[in-house]
Specification:
Low-confidence stretches: none
Number of domains: 3
Largest sheet: 4 strands, mixed
Strand content: 15-25%
Radius of gyration: 22 Å
Shape: globular
Number of helices: 5
CATH topology of the largest domain: Histidine-containing Protein, Chain: A
Helix content: 40-55%
Mean pLDDT: 88
Structural class: alpha/beta
Number of strands: 8
CATH architecture of the largest domain: 2-Layer Sandwich
Distance between the termini: 44 Å
């Protein structure tokens, strides 16, 4: 029994020292540890979700590589692009922000199409569950009459219904359905 406990103690200490050694090597190279990179990732997600003008017609994604955060996506308001960069810059551990967010061109036609798409998708009985909460999981992006659906839904059926509803809206030249199905949601 003592021998097994001793073996377990040796194994645990060697694993712990290996993990600490990897963190120390990363710190020596000036890179964040895996834990710090995970903390930065969570902080970036939180800051982006807390942006005041981040809505259903915007899509912002990001990549964290070391101490560099790359912002991607499309937004309707130019202020949201700069707000996203400003929010991420102030996160502890972030040294550089590469802001590749595209500001969609202003267009009254696209604005009308966005409203019609919102009603067609979020007012449809099978999809109304996605209208709950402040952050809508189905993002509606419109650029010069071309529609892209981004985000996450519960089932393949919901994805297909959203695509069909978007295709049925007048004024849409094309619809790209990039919705992802996330099982176990």
């Amino acid at each position: 029994m003592r021998r097994r406990l001793l073996i377990l103690a040796v194994v645990f200490s060697s694993v712990a020292s290996h993990i600490n050694a990897q963190d120390l090597l990363a710190q020596d190279r000036g890179e964040p540890s895996a834990r710090e990179e995970e903390r930065i990732t969570k902080a970036v997600r939180h800051e982006l979700l807390m942006l005041p003008y981040f809505g259903v017609f915007d899509n912002i994604s990001y990549k964290v590589e070391g101490r560099t955060v790359t912002l991607l996506g499309q937004v309707v308001r130019p202020i949201l692009k700069s707000d996203a960069e400003g929010a991420v810059k102030h996160i502890e551990g972030v040294e550089h922000v590469d802001n590749q967010i595209e500001v969609l061109p202003p267009s009254p036609m696209d604005d009308g199409l966005r409203r019609r798409l919102f009603r067609a998708i979020y007012r449809y009985p099978a999809l109304q569950k996605y209208a709950l909460g402040p952050q809508k999981p189905i993002r509606i992006l419109v650029k010069n009459g071309h529609v892209t659906l981004e985000g996450v839904v519960d089932s393949e059926a919901d994805k297909n219904i959203a695509g069909l509803r978007a295709n049925g809206v007048s004024g849409a030249f094309s619809v790209d359905n990039n919705l992802r199905v996330e099982l176990g949601k």
